Amino acid sequence: MKKIVVAITGSIAAYKSAHLVRLFKKSGCDVRIVMTQSAKEFITPMTMQALSGNAVVDNILDPAHEMGMGHIELSRWADAIVIAPCSANMLAKLANGIADDLVSAMCLASPKKMHIAPSMNRFMWDNPMAQANVQKLLASNLYLMIDPGSGEQACGEVGQGRMAEPEAIHDRVLADLMPKHLPLLGKKIVITGGPTREAIDPVRYISNHSSGKMACSLADAFAEQGADVTLVLGPCEAKPKLPMNIVSVESAQNMLDAVLVNIDNATVFLGAAAVADYRVANIADEKMKKTDDQDGLTLSFVKNPDVLATVAALPKKPFVVGFAAETQNVIEYAIKKLNAKKLDLICANDVSQGKVFGQDENSIVIIDTNNEKIELPRSTKQDQAKKIVNLVINKLGLEK
Ligand code: PMT
Q1: What CA dihedral angle connects 48, 172, 149 and 10, to 10 degrees?
Q2: Active-site annotation holder among 29, 86, 107, 155
Q3: 347 is catalytic
Q4: Alpha carbon distance, N-terminus to C-terminus of the chain
Q5: What is this structure's pTM?
Q6: CA distance 285 to 276
Q7: Which residues, other chains included, contact 184 with Cβ-Cβ below 8 Å and sequence gap of 6+?
Q8: What is the distance between the alpha carbons of residues 86 and 353, in angstroms, rounded to a whole number?
Q9: pLDDT 10s per residue in the chain (400 long)?
Q10: Ligand 1 mutation target, pool 275, 362, 367, most atoms within 8 A of CB
Q11: Domains of the chain as residue ranges with CATH
Q12: Chain-centroid distance, C-alpha 324
């Protein structure tokens, strides 16, 4: 029997928690309820007690619970903790390690990952502060986000912020508790992502618009299938959601060095980084000065090492997947790169008109060595990443 703590915070969606508890009970779970003071303004502890069959706890200093240490006892008892609904206020508390009520104290004391189902007005959800809190919680690797849905809100506005439906929360929490067959368990995967920066002088560099989003989505999609992922990441904001080995690099040469240190025994190498093809030949030791007698400036470049081609040429080469970012003749150039770099697969990316760099969505054509093409219509980079990973699993004969 799975032991679930449902933590309810102050939001109109608290009424949906009653249904969530019923679903967990129907699935044979033992459910305990923790409520904040404001949650009790939306739904009564009596209702939640009747549905869960257990006394509701709401007081951090309750002498009836293990000498006032209910937060510790609860977090140890639970197989899963789900905060549903999680208000903007609770999101902020959790993101900042505040523990001034039973729900936040229990979460801070929990050694296990917890599920959060946020619920709030659409402007609150879109607020940069709330979004920063979400990112902080995800980056901590202690929380799993069950994103709010879009639609009409209790306040009458329309947008994202409605708590996910109880069925979706129930299914996700129980699915995460089930042992899974993960086809890439124990397999080492190395991915490059983000841009590189090629120095001009100590304060200037040449780079590109890669945000690292595609690479982070791929890294998460491989990790979800059990892989042991090393992500060699150029300077960018994006970070993967799942725990993995992240190696931060700057230049193409740094990226190659980091890849070669990590590539031994890798099953797959995937080059999603936008690596500079050339670097400045002579990096100035001091900041270059503007001069009155010179209207222009010429820089000389030398070719960078090709990370992808270097890995594909290794004697014990992994399965190698490349990307081709092109603004014209996309398929033709991608096939040339597939052959010239001796890759196993290439993902052809039409990056014209700002369609891909930094965007959340993408469309890709995957081409293999038999010239077979799979078109992935425009969808989120997470979705594209899952499809690429499934294809790699299939090519490796490691079907789920
Ligand atoms: O980061 P995002 O904003 O999410 O955008 C994603 C992306 C567009 C950066 C990504 O999907 C992508 O297409 N990455 C490859 C970009 C690129 O530089 O492509 P290319 O056609 O120049 O290079 C071909 C392949 O060789 C790529 O796999 C590249 O990583 C690799 N390469 C290139 C040059 C070099 N010196 N070393 C390399 O390994």
Answers
A1: 30
A2: 155
A3: no
A4: 26
A5: 0.66
A6: 21
A7: 222, 225, 226, 227, 267, 389, 393, 398
A8: 39
A9: 899 999 999 999 999 999 999 999 999 999 999 999 999 999 999 999 999 999 998 877 666 655 455 677 888 899 999 999 999 999 999 999 999 999 999 999 998 889 999 999 999 999 999 999 999 999 988 999 999 988 887 778 888 899 999 999 999 999 999 877 899 999 999 999 999 999 999 999 999 999 999 999 999 999 999 999 999 999 999 999 888 999 999 999 999 999 999 999 999 999 999 999 999 999 999 999 999 998 999 999 999 999 999 999 999 999 999 999 999 999 999 999 999 999 999 999 999 999 999 999 999 999 999 999 999 999 999 999 999 999 999 999 998 6
A10: 275
A11: 3-177 (3.40.50.1950), 188-286+294-395 (3.40.50.10300)
A12: 23
Work out the burial of residue 225: count CB atoms within 10 Å of its CB; fewer than 13 is exposed, 13-18 middle, 19 or more buried.
buried
Atom of ligand 1 minimally distant from the CA of 351? 8
CA 165 to ligand 1 center in whole angstroms:
38
Looking at the CA of residue 358, tell me the nearest atom of ligand 1: 3
Cβ 306 under 6 angstroms from ligand 1: yes
Read off φ and ψ for residue 158, nearest 5 degrees. Answer: -120, 130
Residue nearest to atom 33 of ligand 1 (CA): 275
DSSP state of 165: P
